[in-house]
Amino acid sequence: MIIRPCARLISTSAPSSSRYDAKVFREPISDREQLRKPLSADDERNFLFIKALKSDETPTFYRNHVVDKLVRVCMTDGRKEMSRKNVLAALEIIKRKQYQAWNKASDDEKPKIELSAFKIAEVGIDNCKPLMKLQGVTRGGTTYQVPFPIEDSEAEFRAMKMMRDICRQKAKHGETFFKDALAAELMLASQNEGATIQAKQELHKTCEANRAYAHYRG
Amino acid sequence: MFYSPVLSKNALAKGRSVYPKVEIFSEVLPLCGKDKVNQKKSKAAASSCTQELQSLFGCLRKYEFDSLPCGKQNEAYKECVKASAKAAAEYKETSKKGALGEGSSQSMTTAQFNKLMQLFPQPDLGQSPYRQMKRLPSQSYSDDLFHRKSMPGKPS
């Protein structure tokens, strides 16, 4: 009988400690500016081990917070490399489409066309951020959906999650690829259109309908 | 006809005395406040930023629930939420400490009041059964000293 190595094992418990011994391992440098400078003489990293650099913390000039977060949100089963491939492919599709449009456009229209796919992704995600969230609050045996205020980072996460769910729905059963759906959705969202913007507006509508429950908050 | 309230039909009804009712004061509890106030669950003045929320929803309704034109209202609502969360945290901190002269509110919290009363208790407040029914050695058990014979419950 052949025992094949398992690609991933499901872990149901949180790690109780790091596999790096805190006594002999130190954090790596991921900042580009800092990397150019020499280490000071009393820095512990001169003589201790350095932890392995995380794959999304490599020192690159194109490091982008929104894209990194989108990669994490779109990840399934811990396959971050696969997710990054998908998201970057979507950005490439956006770039190609924008460049085609730029080529076709007349000279006075050219400066209006945004060529940076990163910029388009940022604007798109920013447009999808909801203003509040709905949270269940149980009062007197009844659970009410109460509109709650939302932190900026959570709003960003919820925008990405809505977009991811919509793209997954579109890419179900191999109808399209996830990257194509994500590219289309990001481009539409940057124009304040599309299914994710509609989902956000639906959420706002439900919050408005449930505004009478707002005093159940806290 | 001569009229007097003493001779009215009501006053002369069966079992009523024609003499005015005599009220006798009896100090059941000492006539002063206690040293302790029951502590309620300390909570800051509830501010759910209703006005800001209403204006935000008004703006959303106006623009068909699109959030982009409502940045100003959203900022105001967020600021209000932040400020009220900060005030609540501050209130909790001061009420926990029970320290005097701290916090934004002018009046004392319950904890502060209790602490002050602990330092300077009411004089001659006495102990919990304030009116002791005590019989002197010369007095008999059979005498109804405290007028409790007709009272329901256990006679003392």
UniProtKB/TrEMBL annotation, chain A:
SUPFAM superfamilies: Ribosomal protein S7. Residues 59-211 form the Small ribosomal subunit protein uS7 domain. One of its GO terms (cellular component) is mitochondrial small ribosomal subunit. GO terms for molecular function: mRNA binding; rRNA binding; structural constituent of ribosome. Belongs to the universal ribosomal protein uS7 family. PANTHER family: RIBOSOMAL PROTEIN S7. Component of the mitochondrial ribosome small subunit (28S) which comprises a 12S rRNA and about 30 distinct proteins. This is Small ribosomal subunit protein uS7m. It comes from Pristionchus pacificus. The lineage of its organism: Eukaryota, Metazoa, Ecdysozoa, Nematoda, Chromadorea. The gene is WBGene00095957.
UniProtKB/TrEMBL annotation, chain B:
PROSITE patterns: CHCH. GO terms for cellular component: mitochondrial ribosome; mitochondrion; nucleoplasm. SUPFAM superfamilies: Cysteine alpha-hairpin motif (SSF47072). Pfam families: CHCH (PF06747). GO terms for biological process: mitochondrial translation. InterPro entries: CHCH, Cys_alpha_HP_mot_SF, Ribosomal_mS37_met. This is CHCH domain-containing protein. Keywords: Disulfide bond. It comes from the Eukaryota.
